[in-house]
Amino acid sequence: MRRKRSDTIAETLEGLILDGTFADGDRLDEVQLAERFDVSRTPLREAFQRLAVSNLVEQIPRRGVFVRQPGPVALLEMFEVMAELEAACARLAASRITDAALDEMRAVNGRCHASVEVRDVDGYYRENERFHAILYRQSANGFLEDKCLRLQRRLAPFRRRQLHLRGRLAQSMAEHEAVVAALERGDAAAAAKAIRAHVAVQGEKFHLLMSSLKQPADSRTGDRHAPNLP
Amino acid sequence: MRRKRSDTIAETLEGLILDGTFADGDRLDEVQLAERFDVSRTPLREAFQRLAVSNLVEQIPRRGVFVRQPGPVALLEMFEVMAELEAACARLAASRITDAALDEMRAVNGRCHASVEVRDVDGYYRENERFHAILYRQSANGFLEDKCLRLQRRLAPFRRRQLHLRGRLAQSMAEHEAVVAALERGDAAAAAKAIRAHVAVQGEKFHLLMSSLKQPADSRTGDRHAPNLP
DNA sequence: ACCAGAGTTATTGTATACAAACTTGTTGAC
DNA sequence: GTCAACAAGTTTGTATACAATAACTCTGGT
């Protein structure tokens, strides 16, 4: 089945916003982007609507659409919700998870361990995502799974940096083990608590997150309008 | 600030879908709706994009947009997530709630009680929504609050019928009291458990929910097209 | 020099025109 | 009679044209 042009455009723009190519407050110029994607304004505007619902951009009538990157407060709130959503997954999964899934989680953890040994941060990141994906799936709640995946994708660029913290990989591994152990016992409360602690922004993670927020704000003065696109 | 036509159109369509005017599988005809709203197809298509992100409709390329009402499974999943989200609110609110908010919750519960006495289901429903809104707010997490409000609105048409269950109002009241009591003690776990039980679909609520699902399928033959708009 | 206001320019919102592709109906062969 | 293939007719997707409004500029006044 062929996809619409506006679909791929929405995805591309979403990626550009998530990875920080567009900074907070940048105006998305219709004609400029239309030229860039080699389409008319129509599919672009359709893509904008979708981004607006996802809160990635804000549409101000007769003014244009503006990128809305989460500020420090919003970001902490999102991480907090992520932690609670994953805790819900763990709670539900504790009584629903299959033996096969438990095996797979242990296998993933094994590969995580191997990546830690070799200092392969990217490899660890991949397996870590897989670990969480299994957890979402094992909540046996497709709606919850979808919500988790979406929020995870949105937080991914911020989450990623935290892995470079010294000793973070090993600690993260240990937390994974705790989650699996609780799930194995069918201990819903313990599983929820373990994954919540794993995801929550606390300790050094907080400082790293805050400092990463100031990164995209350099290279431009406080000016809101007239952004220089690449 | 003046709003766009496509904004109000999206809201109107959302309302029509949520209240069941459009049944599952109905195709939203662009030209037909354009005539009805007295606009061109352009703003309609922009509205469609927004509905698609909210999973209210499904866009099948080159085929059209189709209403997607949640089936039994999806509905139970959504209620389960609602329960978990509210549990998260309660957990966070337990240590964040203000004395003023606690007072307000007690006041709302008082009005709920009065409504029960007079068998005023509508009044109870209003105050009940207010109760939950306060809880969301007291999570002190705007992102979470927003997610809760959105899901609540989506589930509202289904939730409403459950109040007509015999003895449901009194039981619901008691559950509210339990939540407030736990919050007052600052007992996060108890507050989460209480609100989860309050929201969860269980016992007789399950049967009522399932039977209400067959309701929207009457009043129309298997015909897919030509829905009668107000 | 600075502010006010009208006119100009630029940009968004909407309508219409055109192109592509899916549906459907008909015809013909087996 | 059934199935396949082709053609007509819809319907969606995209481009372009037009309208409305906000931003900007330039001029004139104090």
From TrEMBL, chains A, B:
GO terms for molecular function: DNA binding; DNA-binding transcription factor activity. CDD domains: WHTH_GntR. This is Transcriptional regulator, GntR family. Residues 3-70 form the HTH gntR-type domain. It holds the Pfam family GntR. It comes from Citreimonas salinaria. Keywords: DNA-binding, Transcription, Transcription regulation. It comes from the Bacteria. SUPFAM superfamilies: GntR ligand-binding domain-like, Winged helix' DNA-binding domain.
